[in-house]
Specification:
Strand content: 5-15%
Protein name: Helix-turn-helix transcriptional regulator
Number of domains: 1
CATH superfamily: lambda repressor-like DNA-binding domains
Radius of gyration: 14 Å
Order of helices and strands: EHHHHHEH
Domain HTH cro/C1-type: 19-62
GO molecular function: DNA binding
Helix content: 55-70%
CATH topology: 434 Repressor (Amino-terminal Domain)
InterPro entries: Cro/C1-type_HTH (IPR001387), Lambda_DNA-bd_dom_sf (IPR010982)
Largest sheet: 2 strands, antiparallel
Structural class: mainly alpha
């Protein structure tokens, strides 16, 4: 997947547990776990904003993009 989720890294840097973050931003631990693993197709901006506000970070601290030629082929097939 071209978008890499580094939420677990930011949680470790801030010394915040997943359960604490999930409760603070109002999502289930299960959904947070799916987000951390990158097994979601999208994330709401409001959820991303809540995560960034709680962890005092920027979206780029959580999400990264790894370009590859496979991404271009997959996008043209959609």
């Amino acid at each position: 997947m071209p978008v890499i989720v580094n939420l677990d890294v930011m949680l470790a840097r801030r010394k915040v547990r997943s359960k604490e973050l999930a409760e603070a931003i109002g999502i289930t631990e299960s959904n947070l776990s799916l987000l951390k693993s990158g097994k979601v197709k999208g994330v709401r901006f409001s959820t991303l904003a809540a995560i960034c506000r709680y962890l005092d970070c920027q979206p780029g601290d959580i999400l990264a993009y790894d370009a590859s030629d496979d991404d271009l082929r997959a996008a043209s097939e959609d």
